[in-house]
């Protein structure tokens, strides 16, 4: 069976006909061409496919696209504005939080959700927020430093604004 899926992806309202069994990760990558969301384990264990659904981090490889009807979905592809990196993206670049880069989209999206709800997270807060994401290249130190960098940059930006 097929369903008309109406949702907002990265600020764009969409209406697409999708099979009822289509996973969100396949919808994002194959149907609408947003390849920033990675397919890692295909079982919800690695977090590379993390996206935000109505502001909350979710594994797109475990989520049926049709369950997102009426939802707002955000992917790493939609974070930057006017080709400018966000503070979080800059943090991953400046602090070398991206090694091979495969886990980076999921790490960034999980971190984005954290910083939205807690703009001044402790190291433990960051570790908790990233617990559902696995990086096979680092000891997570650089990733934590990237999130701390972003939190500080965002705080300084608020002081200037």
Under CATH, the topology of the largest domain can be stated as Ubiquitin-like (UB roll)
Radius of gyration: 16 Å
Q: Beta-sheet strand percentage?
A: 15-25%
CA-to-CA gap between the ends?
50 Å
Number of helical runs? 5
The total count of strands amounts to: 5
Strand line-up in the sheet with most strands? 2-1-5-3-4
The biggest beta sheet is recorded as: 5 strands, mixed
Tell the overall outline. globular
CATH architecture of the largest domain: Roll
How many domains? 2
Helix fraction by DSSP (H/I, runs of at least 4): 25-40%
Query: What is the highest CATH level, the class of the largest domain?
Result: Alpha Beta
Write down the overall mean pLDDT.
95
Secondary-structure topology with pairs:
Elements: E1 2-9, E2 12-19, H1 24-31, E3 50-53, E4 56-59, E5 72-74, H2 87-94, H3 104-117, H4 123-129, H5 141-160
Helix pairs in contact: 2-5
Characterization of the model:
The chain has 161 residues and is an alpha+beta fold. It folds into two domains: 2-78, Beta-grasp domain (Ubiquitin-like (UB roll), Roll); 87-160, [2Fe-2S]-binding domain (DNA polymerase, domain 1, Orthogonal Bundle), CATH 1.10.150.120. The chain contains five helices and five strands; from the N terminus they run E-E-H-E-E-E-H-H-H-H. It has a five-stranded mixed beta sheet, covered by helices on one side. Strand 1 (2-9) and strand 2 (12-19) form a beta hairpin. Helix 2 packs across helix 5 (141-160). The chain is globular. The protein starts with a strand and ends with a helix. The mean pLDDT is 95.
